[in-house]
Amino acid sequence: MRRGLTHGPSRPAYALWVATRSLPGRESPEFTEALEALRHARLRPEVRITEVPAPQRIAPYAVALTADVLGAADDDEELASGRFVLLHDPSAPEPWGGQWRAVTFARAELEPELAADPLLGEVGWSWLMDSLAMRGVQATAEAGTVTRVVSQSFAALADRPASVEMEVRASWTPIGPDAGAHLLAWSDLLCTIAGLPPLPEGVVALPGPRR
Asked: Pfam families, alphabetically (predicted)?
């Protein structure tokens, strides 16, 4: 099912479990605290999180998570997917402007008629900025791209309808200790491009079993 543009990030409300730690090098109390914050982030039930091997050469400490946003429980259709990487380098690399860096990716299929929308890129980037703002998190050195990928089939595959995917690649330097809030903001973006309606203010989904 293709989705059109929706407005406003969804609010997560589900438990996340980070099963292992990716800690190449010496122990870092700050990074351990960040991992605990990720473990306690409560995401929407449609968001399924998996920890994957983290990059080893970018920073001394790193953790990587992938996420799929699924549809109704009876079909488990994938509506969006993405990746969230949190890097920690106590030396505070100059390009980061701090000791932390979040590197993210989010992708979802949209309605084909949106391929020609000249504002698609601006809308995608504003969703990310709105998600960070709504979570009340602070960040600096933001950078990213919004890409539309149009696929059209020919010859023996000509009967296939055209498809459009939006890809949002972004990174930023978190300010403050709450890594979980940055994960939640990213999951808000993922739910938004998946076309999920935002949960009503104050509504929290009941937690289910940890994965």
From this structure: DUF3000 (PF11452)
Summarised one tens digit per residue, pLDDT across range 95-112 is: 999 999 999 999 998 877
Nearest in space to 16 (alpha carbons), one of 49, 54, 51? 49
pLDDT over threshold 90, residue 162: no
| Distance in angstroms (rounded) separating the CA atoms of residues 130 and 34 | 23
Query: Could you give the count of Cα atoms lying within 13 Å of 157 in the half-sphere of its Cβ?
Result: 7
Could you give phi then psi for residue 147, rounded to 5 degrees?
A: -120, 140
Does residue 144 sit in helix, strand or coil? Answer: strand
Q: 167-176 pLDDT, tens per residue? A: 999 999 999 8
Q: Which secondary structure element, helix H or strand E, spans residue 105, and what is its range?
A: strand 100-110
| pTM of the shown model | 0.80
